[in-house]
Amino acid sequence: MPIDYSKSIIFKFEHVSNPNFLYVSGSTCFDKNKTQYRFLNCNDRYFKILKEIIKINGGWEKIIVTRIKPYPCFSRGGLYIELNRVLEVEIKKKNIIDLDIINKIHVYLNK
């Protein structure tokens, strides 16, 4: 079954006390994925890295998940273009100089 990107939502993970921790992503089923992120048991190397970084930063109790905006589009490529734009905006808003590695890995693995 093809993925319906018209239901895409862009969201972010932020740390309660580490201003350099920022993860921006998108999902076509945000509410379901918001819960599933806590139980990342996937063998995908990206999710293993994400889970480890969250663990190192104090676990899920220290992470705030915020819905940024709906972003209906037609393809995964369109969603990733907008994710990168939103990430740049969020970095400027928070005045982040040294972004933690999470989004750098995400962008690299999805090219």
Task: Give an overview of the whole structure.
The chain is built from 4 helices and 3 strands; from the N terminus they run E-E-H-H-E-H-H. By secondary structure, the protein is of the alpha+beta class. Strand 1 and strand 2 (22-27) form a beta hairpin. Helix 2 runs antiparallel to helix 4. The relative contact order is 0.26. Residues 107-111 have low confidence and may be disordered.
What profile does the largest beta sheet have? 3 strands, antiparallel
What is the mean predicted local confidence, pLDDT?
Answer: 78
Distance between the termini: 23 Å
Strand order of the largest sheet: 2-1-3
- Helix fraction by DSSP (H/I, runs of at least 4): 40-55%
- The topology string of helices and strands comes to EEHHEHH
Uncertain segments are 107-111
Proportion of residues in β-strands: 15-25%
Query: What is the tally of helical segments?
Result: 4
Count the E strands.
3
Radius of gyration: 14 Å
User: What is the global morphology?
Assistant: globular
> Which structural class do you get from the secondary structure elements?
alpha+beta
